[in-house]
Here is the input.
Amino acid sequence: MSDEIKHECGVALLRLRKDLNYYLRKYGTPYYGYHKLSLLLEKQHNRGQDGAGIASLGLDAEPGMPYYQLEKSNRDLSLADLLERIGTQIECGLEHAGEIDKISSLSLPFCSELYLGHLRYGTFGKRSLSACHPVVRASSCRKHTMLLAGNFNLTNTSAIFNELVASGHHPNSRQDSEILLLHLGHYLEKMLEPRGGHEPMLDIFELLKQAAVHWDGGFTLCGLFGHGDAFALRDAAGIRPGYYYFDDEIAVVASERPAIQTAFNLSSSEVMELPPGHALTISVNGDIALKECLPSIPHKRCVFERIYFSRGNDADIHRERLALGRALVPAVMKAIDDDFDNTVFSYIPNTAQISFHGLLDGLDSLRGSHRVRFSQIAVKDAKFRTFITDASHRRDLFPHVYDVTYGVIHPGADTLVVLDDSIVRGNTMRNAILPILDRLGPKKIVVASAAPPICYPDCYGIDMSSFGELVAFEALVSLLKKHGRQDLLPITAEKALLDLEKPDCCMKNHVRTLYEQFTFEQLCDEIGILLTPPDLRASVKVIFQRIEDVHAACPEHRGDWYFSGDYPTPGGNRVVNRALVNYVNKVNGRSY
Here is the structure.
């Protein structure tokens, strides 16, 4: 992907279902669970690099000793830093313990039956240690203690904050994770309030039903209770992903299926999807249950997970990305005038590679006696760093974040086709990729995007919540001006502002009416104009995937609000209307 966007945290929950000594005897180490959790986090490292955290909770820790341990890091290379620090503690503990023939919970550092791990990508939260998960609600009464970690964003955090204040709470911050922890804790205390001199049983499903019905957003939330119960809950629309596996030794939940497959050597069919709106619970005695906790709504699994976010080594995602590449073939052939002999095909590294193979498969079926010329033309210089503080000199160096392969393009004769998985802001394409490709002397550059134009902001965990960040909206505004319809912008913003007085369920997305003024082709062509630097020698054509082709390639993932404006929860329409009002009034900041 040419634009770097922050998104989608990663989470992992692991429960050992047998006594720790079983793993010591079978695997020769009491740290079987910790090693597996570390691997789950390593294999989801693409999901978060702003922070990392691991919690370890013991079932039979002795009173007078801690029953959980927690370490977090917000340093550069946070996961490596975290694992190194915990590893040092483990080494010291093992060295001090000597020969081990029997083990109990937390008698050694981070040696326990329950683990919760998290990888953080920050959107609006500060990159502080307190923003890293797991977050803790501590109590000396174990059943009242909660540790939470999740991949989530709620659109109605402010409303929940106000509800808590009205209930007598005093939140210490407005951080999403802290508000959610406090909100769930509020319902926990109500459930565990003593009746008739006895504390009621903790019913996790009922607790989640009571609390989560108030949450508008996308989430896969994992939690541990101090006494040993655990859960994983997914939002009713299935916006955020979640997968699980269990056998007689372990139970595990993670954000991505291949991470579980790799950690435990499993086939795709052995790892189950956590159904939308359902919670998986693991009781203190190891019993596992799966129940629906949230009212059923249409499933809108995030399709961007399939195009870009999740790793492409998932069998289904690999197949879907190939299909996305193949779907671009007709438009690409039209853009190159069916001229195989004078066209070189390439891609923007690295996540577009699988879609590129799909494009090549489709081209190969049409080439006849012609040879499909392809090569890796754009090369991302992973080691490139700029240490110059002067802004003008930094701009000069910015294009060199990418390098190119020389000697493949015939100057003045060849068309160069480059496939990207998506174009969000367009800054890197405009300021780095196209200028460096132009140095090779192609007569024409065709940029093909495996995703449609990203026309609408996100509010479910991705770092693009304002219209000013989207080149597609920039193109829309440009078209309105060119066609003398710029007055539609403030008129529509006024309608959006009036809608913001209504309940979320009664709002509509007013921005869609602006996009309806122009055809798909007009919007794509205008984006191409905006992406083309003024001094570029080559002509530029930008091709985008159509939404219907995305649906055909990813039939189980209909969450396409980035492209269509069809938000999966009522809060989405509030966010998009607020984003438009903010844009027209030149207000920078979060739209939710």
